[in-house]
From TrEMBL:
PANTHER family: FLAGELLAR RADIAL SPOKE PROTEIN 3, RADIAL SPOKE HEAD PROTEIN 3 HOMOLOG. GO terms for cellular component: cilium. Its main location: cytoplasm. Residues 212-247 form a coiled coil. Keywords: Cell projection, Cilium, Coiled coil, Cytoplasm, Cytoskeleton, Flagellum, Phosphoprotein. Belongs to the flagellar radial spoke RSP3 family. It holds the Pfam family Radial_spoke_3. The lineage of its organism: Eukaryota, Metazoa, Chordata, Craniata, Vertebrata. Residues 1-38 are annotated as: Disordered. This is Radial spoke protein 3. It is found in: Cytoplasm, Cytoskeleton, Flagellum axoneme. It comes from the Eukaryota.
Amino acid sequence: MQTKKEGESTYTFASRPRPLQNRSKYRESVTEPSDGNGSYVNIMYDRRVVRGNTYAQTIIPVPAPKDPIEIQRQQEARRRAIARRRAKMQFRTSTPEAVEGRQHVDIQTELYLEELSDTVEESTVECQTDAFLDKPASPVFIPAKTGRDVGTQIEEGELFDFDLEVRPLLETLVGKTVEQSLQEVMEEEELASLRAQQRAYEELRNLELVEVQRLEKREHRHRQEKERRLRQQREVLRRERETAEKVAARAFSRQYLVDLLPSVYTTLKEHGYFYDPVERDLETVFLPWLMAQANGTLEKHCAARAIVDMLIRDVAQRKSHLYQQMADKSPDPS
């Protein structure tokens, strides 16, 4: 941005601050950027350098400040774009990790190999610019004198009489001064009266406040006494109600227990909680043993009968078989 004001002979230059660009490992070909923002090697390609006469340079107007809302909107859009770019980088598939015992190595896949080194080749280039010439100070413009000088003689008393002309001014000043003084005195008296009325009002207000505080304290004491007596009365009523409930419960329990004890004893006796030990021993020990012995004896008798029946059946079958054989062997009488 170039600025040059009228009446100034020096040239000033100012540019907006900008962040430095990342420097690449290898030197790229130096060309003139199209947008005017880039790193220049040759100063002759920089548009900010003015060559030649600077007196007739066009003054570039200073850009108006941008709207804060527009700046905030642009920053928000830039942040969203950066977040979107980061999300794409995260979801982008990358080269898998090398297996155990191997490692990835960068190699050249071009047709012609190029020797790579960490040392960057450098070269020095110089150029000569024109000397900076200061504009000499412009001479002060003095217009040429034209016409003739003419003088007029005025005697004393010809234009006005000072004593006569100054009288209205003095009367006005004195009148205004006296009027202002009277107004100030009246204002002071009015202020004094207002202060007296204010003091009287403050005293009356203080008295009323004291009376109000006394009435509030008395009302507070009455309210506390009323609440205390109400609490005492509620406590007395609660105790009377509890006493009446206890008396009623005691009478009800006595009346209920009169018929409850015989019924309880009868129920317990029916359910077998009161029993004769000998009878219980006979029922639980002797009778089960006797039934077990009788069942064993009956089972033995049944087994013996079954064995006898089997023997008898076998003997009868053998005799029947022998008789059948004898009948078959005997001759026919006819």
